[in-house]
Amino acid sequence: MKQSSALFLLVFLFSTSGTYAQESGSLDEMNMLLSKNLKYPAELRQEGIEGPVVVSVKVDPRGTLTGEYEFLSGNLAFEEEIERTLNVLKENWNPSFLEDKSYDLEYLMSFDFKLSKGAGFPPNPFMNTSQKSEEISPLMAVTQALEENPYFPPLYKNRAEILKSEGKEILAEMDLNQAKFLKGKMLTEIVIVGYLPSGPKSL
C-alpha cells in the first residue's frame, strides 16, 4: 500500500510504572521496541479514525508474555496493528520488562491513536468544549467517553477534575481511585500521533 510522503508519524511513549527508575531501565527498552514497530495504519489515518485502545495481556508464572490478549475497549479497526505489534513484543520479550511487577498476572496496555487534525475525543474534554457547549456538558462528554473506554485512566482523571470543580468530592475521589488502580495494572501507555497534510483534499 502506497503512503503519501506528506504523511508523518510520531510515536510518544509514556511509562506508567508509578515512579521512574533512577537509571534507564528495562521498561524503557520495551517502549523503544514498541516505538520502532508500532505504526498508525495509513487507511485509518486518512479516514480520520482515532482514539484510545486498551488490551489486556497475560504473563505466565515464569514472567513470560504468553501472547494471549483481549481487546477491552476502543476501535476494533486498530486491532490488526496492535496484534502485529504484540507479536513482535512476544518474540523479543524479556521478563525484566516487568521491572517490579509480579508474574502470573494479567496487565493492561494502552494505545492512544491521535491525529494532529481530526474530530476525535480531546484529551481534556472539559477544556475544549466551546463548539458544543450548548449541546453537551463537559461532564456528559467525558462520561460518554468512559462508556466507550472504561479502562482508560486519563478519562477518570478528567472526570475527577470536573466533579471536584462542581463540589462533588466523594465522586471525584472514587474516579481518582479507579484511575490509580488502572495505572497500577498498566505495563505502559503509548500515544501514537499521526500527522496529515494541512492542505485541502482532492476528490
Summarize the structure.
This protein is an alpha+beta fold. 35% of the residues lie in helices and 23% in strands. The longest helix has 17 residues, at 169-185.
Q: SSE layout and pairings?
A:
Blueprint: E1 8-15, H1 26-37, H2 42-46, E2 51-59, E3 65-73, H3 79-91, E4 105-115, H4 138-148, H5 153-165, H6 169-185, E5 186-195
Parallel strand pairs: 4-5
Antiparallel strand pairs: 1-5, 2-3, 2-4
**Structural class assignment:** alpha+beta
Can you give the helix content as a percent range?
25-40%
Strand order of the largest sheet: 1-5-4-2-3
Number of strands: 5
The average pLDDT score comes to 81
Strand content: 15-25%
**Oligomer description:** single chain
Order of helices and strands: EHHEEHEHHHE
Count of DSSP H/I helices:
6
Largest sheet: 5 strands, mixed
Give a quick set of tags describing it:
203 residues; alpha+beta; 6 helices; 23% strand; globular; disordered N terminus
Can you offer a commentary on this structure?
The chain is of the alpha+beta class. 35% of the residues lie in helices and 23% in strands. The chain has 6 helices and 5 strands. A 5-stranded mixed β-sheet has the order 1-5-4-2-3. Helix 1 crosses helix 3, helix 4 packs antiparallel against helix 5 and helix 5 packs antiparallel against helix 6.
